[in-house]
Amino acid sequence: FALVFSDGATEGLAARLAETLRLVGEPLDLGGQPIHLEASIGLAMREDAASPGERQSASELVARADLALYK
User: Fold this and answer.
1) What are the tens digits of pLDDT across the range 41-67?
2) How far apart are CA 52 and CA 11, in angstroms?
3) What residues have CB less than 8 Å from 10, skipping those under 6 apart?
4) For residue 57, which phi and psi values (nearest 5 degrees)?
5) What does the alpha-carbon distance between residue 41 and residue 21 come to, in Å, rounded to a whole number?
6) C-alpha span between 63 and 71 (Å, rounded)
7) Cα(39)–Cα(69) distance, rounded to whole angstroms?
8) 46: which residues sit within 8 A by CB, 6+ positions away?
9) CB 21 within 8 A of CB 35
């Protein structure tokens, strides 16, 4: 799935995502059995450009996030 934020709404986003990954990585107790989950997050942010024609398209951002997912 994808999350899209408006300009300015991404302050501290990387830190919040890192904390989310840390929490997901903690084992869960399910009836006395530890359950370990894993997650990956690919983050891509639109670079500000001089003109709207130079801005990245949604598909370009998704492709960049997909690449980041595996780094």
Assistant:
1) 888 877 665 566 667 788 888 888 888
2) 22
3) 45
4) -80, 165
5) 8
6) 13
7) 10
8) 55, 56, 61
9) no
Tell me which amino acid residue 53 is: G
pLDDT, tens digit (0-9, with 9 covering 90-100), for 8-54: 667 788 788 889 888 888 999 999 999 998 888 888 877 665 566 66
pLDDT class for 5, splitting at 50, 70, 90? low
Name the token pair of 40: 């990956």
* DSSP H helices in the chain: 13-25, 58-69
* Residues belonging to the chain: 71
